[in-house]
Predict the 3D structure of the following.
Amino acid sequence: MRTSPVLVTGAAGFIGFHTSLRLLKSGKTVVGIDNLNDYYDVNLKKDRIKELEKFDGFTFVKVEISDKGQMEKLWSDYGPFKRVVHLAAQAGVRYSLENPYAYITSNCMGHVTVLEMCRHTEGFEHLVYASSSSVYGGNEKLPYSVNDNVDHPISLYAATKRSDELISHSYAHLYDLPQTGMRFFTVYGPWGRPDMALFIFTKAICEGRKLPVFNHGKMKRDFTYIDDIIDGVLAALDTPPVRDGKKAPCRVLNIGNTRSENLMDFIRLIEGELGKKAELDLLPMQPGDIAETFADIEETTRLTGFQPRTTIHEGVPKFVNWYKDYYKVET
Ligand SMILES: NC(=O)c1ccc[n+]([C@@H]2O[C@H](COP(=O)([O-])OP(=O)(O)OC[C@H]3O[C@@H](n4cnc5c(N)ncnc54)[C@H](O)[C@@H]3O)[C@@H](O)[C@H]2O)c1
């Protein structure tokens, strides 16, 4: 009997690529979709897909998730999909001040379209979707717990991610659709995103340019290595929530490293790996940004067994080595 493939949305993206890769390496069949938009270098997205296409079990389809017609065609041509890892979204806090519509289209309309497809799938098993630590907004209580109030987003990006969680809850309640929302905390690693700190810093140091360092470097982040994130995503995928009396089969989980690292320590590690000193451009805090993030993962560990393992001392060199190799940088 043919087992239904896992659908990964945003497969050309950083986390979608690694999710697909891990599933393929474990012998699963994966259909990966993405609209290959140009928010950042499209060649990087295409190269990730090329890596995935080395596996027989992988099929890539270019799809716009907010387009109902394209999604219905995908489901009838390649589905039905009973397990979906939904990672396609317009990411980035700062860009949401510049292009708000992209966030509503991809993160709100796109999320509802994915939910509608899942709800009309007989025997649907589990939808795991990406939320974000940004939902904690200006909360001052650390570490951030999934039981904290998150109704005061400080960026449109965060507001769309929180909306996804609320919309998902309504679908779980109404249609018994099992779902897990993953609140990712600053993910980094090989094949990472060019708009994120590690990439920007590494590139600037390699090119001898000044590093833009916001909040004058007084930032702490729960940097989480990509392999740990994928452990969490797949552990969650294998343990769908079940209805418990009136409680809908739906949950949100923090997926972080549980260690808040100083941004400056992170920069020192990149310098060490490149053997080059960084020149810092100390800037004020950006609107919508958060000075410190730190995840409480107790519930995630209890429900899925998730435990992050990689320290920044192991993870940063892995990223820098990938960067040097991919961009053919001589140091
Ligand atoms: N990387 C992080 O640190 C981080 C932190 C918190 C949350 N997240 C969330 O995790 C998910 C994956 O993030 P990522 O870092 O891999 O980002 P990414 O930008 O690398 O990947 C997202 C992919 O989705 C695709 N996409 C966007 N809109 C689409 C649409 N309308 N239709 C089809 N495809 C579309 C993009 O082309 C991209 O390849 C996102 O939902 C993001 O918001 C990421």
Summary: Residues 8 and 32 are 5 Å apart (CA to CA).
